Amino acid sequence: MPAVQRPAVPAPRTTHSPASLAALARGFAADTASWEPLLRFTAPERFYTRLSVAADHEVWLLTWLPGQGTEIHDHGGSSGAFTVVRGELAEGTFLPGAVSSPHAAPRRLAVGGLRSFGPRYVHEVVNRGTEPAASVHAYAPALTAMNTYRHRADGTLVLDRTEEVDR
Ligand SMILES: [Fe+2]
Question: What is the reported pTM?
Fold first, then answer.
């Protein structure tokens, strides 16, 4: 077995759990006045903006035109949660070091659909629908970097690059 290639995960610097982040994302999503006036849909770059920054977590609004999506990525050791507030998103989850099919049975998330995850979670999120979509994301600790993964020719998922998140 080849060594699994994945970045080191920093020690937790937050008291938030995936469950508390889910509650946080749900709370912001329900407070439509906090995000509806901010909605923008842009191409080719997706629109995103922070809704809240605290000492140990942050909340983002992201929008997705049809066909827009992420690459396969993790959250640099942060835990997180996201919920769909407009349209529909598809989420695929992945296991670094394993052979995987990138689009095998993505999970469909309609408005109100929610996912929460720990610090080693690897996924991609895409708007495969025909309408613009938007989602509210909570992370703890606040995002500092995201690692992007790619499939090798043999289908194994490996680390591709690390990108700093602008503060
Ligand atoms: Fe993500």
Answer: 0.88
